[in-house]
Fold this protein.
Amino acid sequence: MSQTKIVASVFAATALICFGSATPANAATVANMPGPISALTTTPDLTCNANVAGGSDEPHFQLGASCLTAVVAGGTLNRPADYPLPGYPGAEVRVQGWSPIAQETSGSGTLFDPFVISTVVAGDQIQVTQIDTYASGSSSFTTSVEVENVGSIALEPIVYRVSDCARAQYDVLSYAAAPTGDGSVACNSMQGIPTGQWGEGTTAGDDLAQLVPITPGSKFEVDQGRGIGAHIALEAEFNNTALTLGGARDNFIGLSWKLDLAPGASSKVAFQTHFSTEDKRAVPTALTLEDGEGGEKTVTASFGTEEVPIALSGSPLVRLPAGISYVEGSSTIGEPMVVGDILMFTAPVGSTGTSFSFRIAGGESGASGDLKLAGSTMDGVDFVQTTVPIEIAPFTPEPTLTPTPISTPSQSPTVAPTATASVSPTASTTAPPAASTQATATPAAAPASGALATTGADGNLAPLGIGAGIVLLLGVGVSVLALRRRAGDELR
C-alpha cells in the first residue's frame, strides 16, 4: 500500500468515527424505558445511540453517533454509509458503506422477553447480522455481531466496535479510565469547567461508559479518534493500550476481534455496553464446570476481582440450555426460583461470599448448549454476562433390583397311612411216595412267588433258589446210578 493510500485511509477511518449525521428517521429505537437506559437506537447501517437517565446531561456519551460497528475483510473497510469520507483526490481508498438488508424490533423489555433490535447488512464478500438486546432496569445492553463469508475465498475479517466518549455539554472532551485487566475498556465524563484546550482545571466525572467483551479473544484500545482510526485503516487489531490517561482528550474506546472464515462459514462475537452515573464498572464474573457423578456437573459462579470487587450483594440469574435441569437441593446459597430455563437465585451473592455453586444434570438423553450468567447488584450495577459452552453425555442409571417376595405354601394335612394286613402264602404239603425198591427223586416244591419277600429277602435273589434245586436233582441222579452199579456188582 502506498503512503498516499495509507494517509487517505487514515483520514477516511477518522472521519468514520468523528463525524456523524443525525439519526435517520427509519432507525430502530426502543424508548420510553424507566432506565437506567431510557432509549436505545440502532440505524440500518449499524450506528447507535444510547440515552442514560440520571446523568448530568442527556443524551449520555452522544455526539451524532455514539457507537458503530465496522468490519475489515479482504482489504475492504465496511462501515456505516452515513459518514462522508474526505481524502486526497484520486486516492484509492477501499471503503464501502454497509448495504442495509433488514431490520426489526421485538420484545416487551422484560427479563423473559427483552427488547431486541435485529439488523442485517451486506458488505464486500460478507454479510453481518447484529442483535442488540436490552431488558428494562439494566445498566447495560448486549450486542452480538455475526459475520458470514459469502464470497468464494477464505477471509480473516476484523470486527471493530467503537464508542465515542464525547459529552454533549463539552463537545469532545472526556477522561480515559485505566484498564482493569478483564479486557474491558472505559471512559469517564469531565467534571468542572475547563480552563485550557485539554481540560485543564477539570477532573474525571462520575458518568462512565464501558465496553466489556463477552466473547474471548478481543483486544481493546483507548485513544483519540485519529489513533483509533489509524488501526482500522491499517486493517490491524487494537493493541490493548490506553494512550490518553491523565487528561481530558477527544477519547474513543474500542474492541476488536480477528476471525478466520472459510467460504460459507460464519462466526459470532458478543460484548456488553455498560453505563453508570456513579463511576461503577460492571462486575466481572466467571463460570467454571466440574464433572460429577451420575451424569451431573457442578457449576461454580464467581463475582468480582481484586481490581473490581463486588461492592454490594446481588441476585444472579442463570439460563440453562435446553435439556439440562437443576439438581434440587444442590445450591450452596439456597434454592433458586425456577422459571422456564432460568434459575433466579434469591439469596444475595456477597452476603456469604463472592461465589456459590450448584449442580445440573442432562438426563438419559444428555444435552449441550450455552450456560449463561447475568443479573445485577442490589444497587443496579449489572454483572458482566458470562457464557460457557457445556455438554453433558447421556447417562442411564443402573436399574435397582427389587427382591421378589417368596410365597410360603400352605401345608397340607398329613394323612396317616392305613395299615394293610399282609397274608402269608399257605405252604403246600406233598405226601411222601409209597416205599419202592426203586427210589424216585421227587423235586422239592418251588416256593411260591414272593415267598422270599416275606422273609425280608430281596426278590431279585429268587434265581438262587432255582440253582439250588438243580444241584439237588443232580445229586439224586448220581446217587441212583451208584446204587444200580452196586446192585449189578452184587448180582454178579
About this structure: The chain has two domains: 3-280, 283-395. Residues 5 and 92 are 6 Å apart (CA to CA). The helical segments are 3-18, 225-233, 463-491. The mean pLDDT is 76.
